[in-house]
Amino acid sequence: MNLFSPLNLLSPVSSLLNSKIFNAIPANFIVMLHKSQCAFAVILSVLVMPTSMNAQAQTTAPEIPVLVQYQGQWQGYIDRPRLSTVLQQQVKESNIHWPSARLFSIEPSVLLEVEAVRTQVLEQLRLLIIANANQPVLAMQLQEMRMQITSWQLAKPILQPVNPLMAQLNQAENPRLDAGQYLLIAGKRIGTVVVFGLGGERFFRHEQLKPAYQYVLDALSTEQSVPDEVAMISANKPARLIPVASWNRTQSALSTGDSLFIPLDRQLVADDYPELNQQLQMLLAHRVPL
User: Fold this and answer.
1) For every residue of the chain, which 3-state class applies, written as one string?
2) Which of 107, 153, 194, 255 is the most buried (most CB within 10 A)?
3) Strands 102-105 and 156-158: what pairing?
4) What is the pairing mode between strands 229-233 and 156-158?
């Protein structure tokens, strides 16, 4: 009698398949039955594998739902940490200017959305440069704007004050971070205000009582007209419009690290690119400060 005939092989294996031992075998150890002694030996060797080895095979590495990057270093948290815990563990410097500190989301899905907007903006600016090639100064200013946008690091700002003292005193200022990847920006007092518009970024020394419209006037060239409003982007706050024209200007002061966006002239973008100014403002709000 052939002990390794299909019938003789299937009989003991069938009983083992229905046993509790087989039910404990991980799925990745399932072996196809073959008409050979070797196949049967492999199945038996798997079935008698020590319990500790089975348990080890089934063990997976713990998930790290929250990852925070600060100054190029990553810190992982198995549980959702509170903001105060992240700040205490990662920021060791004592001279941080907390009003300008920021937290950004750098989740891949979020970055894809932001990068899609950047791609659209860069293409629209490229077409504007071509369309205005007969105006060298304007074309050069558009090209400078385009080059700077290309170089920006972009991320989604979390509109949450980042301040360890406030987080300790007020539970509402000390939320738990949702699962995801974050970028923490915290440094010394910046001391500057950024004005972004045609021609790219311009940096000005922050002056305590200097109103927003004065920064705009300083940034505009003689050929550019003053817009009615500009967008002010501050750390951890939604963007808001600031009147700066001669007929509506206010004495709105800025904080160090604030940015102003001067929209492109409506005659330049209104017909073909009606959403370009809104997209430019969005990118500036998502720009990670240097």
Assistant:
1) CCCCCHHHHHHHHHHHHCCHHHHCCCHHHCCCCCCCHHHHHHHHHHHCCCHHHHHHHHCCCCCCCEEEEECCEEEEECCCCEHHHHHHHHCCCCCCCHHHCEEEECCHHHHHHHHHHHHHHHHHHHHHHHHCCCCHHHHHHHHHHHHHHHHCCECEEECCCCCHHHHHHCHHHCCECCCEEEEEECCCCCCEEEEEECCEEEEEECCCCCEHHHHHHHHCCCCCCCCCEEEEECCCCCCEEEECCCCCCCCCECCCCCEEECCCCHHHHCCCCCCHHHHHHHHHHHECCC
2) 194
3) antiparallel
4) unpaired
| Chain position carrying tokens 């080059």 | 147
- Work out the pLDDT band at 26, boundaries 50, 70, 90: very low
pLDDT of residue 190: 82
Give the type of residue at 10. L
Contact 181, 105 (CB under 8 A): yes
Q: Are the beta carbons of 90 and 184 closer than 8 angstroms? A: yes
Would you state the structure tokens that stand for residue 31, as one six-digit string?
């072996």
pLDDT band at 187 (very low <50, low <70, confident <90, very high): confident
Asked whether residue 137 carries a pLDDT value surpassing 90, the answer given is yes
Mean pLDDT value across residues 186-214: 93
Residue 25 has pLDDT above 50, yes or no: no
Pick the closest to residue 266 from 274, 254, 258, 256 (CA basis).
274
What predicted TM-score, i.e. pTM, was given to this entire model? 0.78
Q: What distance in Å separates the CA atoms of residue 97 and residue 83, rounded to the nearest whole number?
A: 17
